Amino acid sequence: MSLIPYEPFRHLDNIRREFDRFFTTEIPAIRTSFSNHFGNPNIDVYETENEVVATCDIPGLEKKEDVTIDIDNNLLLISGAVNKVNEMKEEHLHRQERFFGRFQRSISLPTRVSSEGVKATYKNGVLEIRMPKFPSDTKKRIDVDFH
Predict the structure, then answer these.
(1) How far is CA 123 from CA 55, 103, 126, in A?
(2) In CATH, what class is 39-89+97-132?
(3) Which residues contact 127 (CB under 8 A, 6 or more apart)?
(4) How far apart are CA 35 and CA 39, in angstroms?
(5) Do residues 71 and 131 make contact, with C-beta atoms less than 8 angstroms apart?
(6) CB–CB of 125/58 below 8 Å?
(7) Model confidence over 10-67: pLDDT tens digits?
(8) Which residues form the CS domain (predicted)?
């Protein structure tokens, strides 16, 4: 019989691995379904040499007052409301999957952006926000006073 050192958390490692496996394989499909129903729109963020770009799926916006975009330090906050297109009586409704109501999404940006020069466009249900990167050329030579 071989002796194995006692590791009190060995069983928790197995549970953690199972949780990791479950959340990486099965939750994205559920998350997509839930996010559309609970007002948490899907968003992609990428950066180019000069800017950070965020694209967000928000079908159903009718006018620019329906969406608000705020940038605070490295945080992008998108919020607003999608109005119900047509009123249906509840007793005639068989299925309702299209989102309407308030939505909000905040996401950390990968680098500092300037709030000046931000451009937002909405086309075919997709909101695109282009944010110029904060100038990283902050190198400054300091003169030394000699007395």
Answers:
(1) 11, 18, 5
(2) mainly beta
(3) 55, 56, 57, 58, 61, 67, 78, 120, 121
(4) 6
(5) yes
(6) yes
(7) 677 777 777 766 665 444 444 444 444 446 888 999 999 999 999 999 888 888 888 9
(8) 38-143
109 vs 50: CA distance, rounded Å = 14
| Amino acid (one-letter) located at 96 | Q
Both tokens of 71, joined, read: 């940038």
Model pTM score: 0.63
| 34 contacts: CB under 8 Å, gap ≥ 6 | 40
How do residues 90-142 score in pLDDT, each as one tens digit? 667 777 666 678 889 999 999 989 888 899 999 998 999 999 998 766 566 66
Per-domain residue ranges of the chain: 39-89+97-132
- Structural tokens at position 90: 């509840």
What is the DSSP-derived secondary structure letter of residue 133?
B
For residues 49 and 135, the answer to whether their CB atoms sit within 8 Å is no
